[in-house]
Input
Amino acid sequence: STLVAGLVAAGCQYLSDEVVILDPMSHSLLPFGNCLSLKAGGRRALRDIFPELVHARRERIDAQALWRTPVGPMRQPDAPTPVRFIVLPRYVAKAPGMLTPVPRAQVLEVCLAQSYRLDLHGSAGLAALVETVQSSRCFSLVGGDVSEHVALLLALWD
Output
């Protein structure tokens, strides 16, 4: 959520946080906008670059404080978005940011493990996921600074 909020603050459009909907025909992602939910650490890390956090509503979910941050409609795409990159982010405190290519088989394994109700789509759904991963550039993003992560991703997309 922190990385997504940092990317939105840098001018990227917002498709979703934690959940994506893959259109099996076009292999594009469908917008699934909802509020970003940031924990205290993410809120602190983004306070200066994401001014909407000042007005974010604090909630408690499972004894954890969360700040719900609405994403404005201008930041959401109005059409499906083609998948060009798949990035597996991992927060490691105080580690320098590193963006490294990863094998597509590893990315497919992660996507399969996190797919919800893929069984409903049968072999066509699995084929769409495989084709999407095959046609994407796949990376691992590791580090502890959201600004550094955002800069690495923006440089990749340019």
In short: The helical segments are 2-9, 40-46, 104-114, 122-134, 146-157. The chain has a mean pLDDT of 84. The CA atoms of residues 30 and 80 lie 5 Å apart. The radius of gyration is 16 Å.
